[in-house]
Amino acid sequence: MSAPPAPGTPAAETTLARRTEQTSTATATPGTGQTTPASPLATQAGRATQATRATLTARAVPATPATPAATAATAATADPADPAAAAGPADPTDPISPVTAVTPADPAGVSGRPALDWRLRFGALSLIWGFSFLLIKVGTDGYAPFQVTLGRLLSGTAVLAIAMVVKRERLPRTARTWGHLAVAAFFLNALPFSLFAYAELTIPSTLAGICNATSPLWGMALSLVALSEDRPTRRRVAGLGLGFLGVLTVLGAWQGFSGLDFSGTAMALLASLSYPIGWIYVRRTLAGSGSSALSLTGSQLFLGTAQLALVTPLFTSAPEGFPLWPTLAVVALGALGTGLAVLLQYGLVTEVGPTTAQMVTYFIPVIATAAGVAVLGEQLSWNTPVGALVVLAGAALTQSRPRAT
Q1: Residue among 337, 224, 219 at smallest CA distance from 282
Q2: What is the pLDDT of residue 112?
Q3: How far is CA 215 from CA 107, 207, 241, in A?
């Protein structure tokens, strides 16, 4: 007979657990060979014994440190349907989403972290769009307005096409989506780009940039009519009225609009009106289309290019030459102001949200005015910057929302 195991050793703890389990399980009925169900107290005791045995077993068998190969094998066998296992660690800076995911608009594309800080990209986007009006002015010195717009759309479409190939984006597949994109391309690209190009034949680029800042005002006024979910508030109505006073200040209404080209200014204001019309149409027709924003915008620019390719030969003749600076201005206007700017905007909306990203609108007229005065030597009277500030204040007021209680 062997000696009993010493108390406190793994063998003694295992023996104790086995005896306790035998005592707490179901008992045999004499003469039947069957067992009767254990009482609730005995059942609880049995469960407790199983937990105790697992604990004692863990004590008796020390844990072996996981090797890198074992860790990799565990990760490889994780359930791919489990979002937490597939997406990675939680993002401590995101109060809503528990995981960090790489989106198609992410400039990094692999690590999920943009190569540049969002503030630098925000400043770059402001500069690109602010200088766009200067580039339009330089482009119209050597080309007809429709030719400037066609070259702009060609360059912008090329940039987005490259981005779509790199990110392996698919084109929309339904005829309905392509039809709505054709309408959006007209109101968001072909029409406003052409109107701004024609307007800057007779008005300075500074005035065109300030007219562009009225787009949020037009958008707020139209959304109250076209979108039932937008309700007028006193703050938004006050912002609309303030912005209207700013426009009158820029135009010098008290002087009877003297020295102002009415047709050029009207075309610039119509161009700024065209943008919210296009966005409202997109919101009502293309929401939930199943295609990514990059795919929709790339297709939209392609359709806008096709529209200008059909219209331009009807109203203009072929250019006699390709002057250096106007050609560079048109290429930069499309590649930077239309193509790269869209990619930067996607990244900002993804990273900091649309509210912060749309603040770039309020820097555009400031940069456009500074560029027109410093580079092109355009004259600036006092009412132009003062009115521009009033317009921006009204636009900001229409876009603001009351704080949630």
Answers
A1: 219
A2: 54
A3: 28, 14, 14
In degrees to the nearest 10, what's the CA dihedral of 251, 126, 137, 221?
A: -40
The DSSP string of 170-191 is PPP--HHHHHHHHHHHIIIIIH
Structure tokens at 220: 């707020």
DSSP string across 349-401: HHHH-HHHHGGGGGTHHHHHHHHHHHTS-----THHHHHHHHHHHHHHHHH--
Contact indicator for 287, 197 with CB cutoff of 8 Å: no
pLDDT at residue 50 above 60? no
Q: Which residue has the tokens 């003469």?
A: 31
Residue 73's CB is within 10 A of a number of other CB atoms, namely 11
**β-bridge mates for residue 182, sequence order:** none
Give, as one character, the DSSP assignment of residue 213: T
**Alpha carbon distance 402, 400 (integer Å):** 7
Closest C-alpha among 231, 218, 165, 230 to residue 187 = 218
pLDDT digits (tens, 9 = 90+) for 322-363: 999 999 999 999 999 999 999 999 889 888 887 778 788 888
